[in-house]
Amino acid sequence: MPGRFGRVLTAMATPFTADGGLDVDGAQHLARHLLDNGTDTLVIAGTTGESPTLTHDEKGRLWTAVVEAAGDSSKVMAGTSTYSTAESIELTQLAEKSGVGSLLLVAPYYNKPPQEGLFLHFGSIARHTALPCLLYNIPGRTSCKIEPQTMLRLAEVDNIVGVKDAVGDMAEASRLHRDTGGAFEQYSGDDKNLLPLLSVGGVGVISVASHLVGPALQELVQAFERGDTRRALELHTSHLELFEGLFATTSPILLKACMNLLGLPAGPLRPPLLDATPPQVEFARGLLAGVGLRPGEGAGG
Question: What's the average model confidence in pLDDT over 204-219?
Answer without folding.
Answer: 98
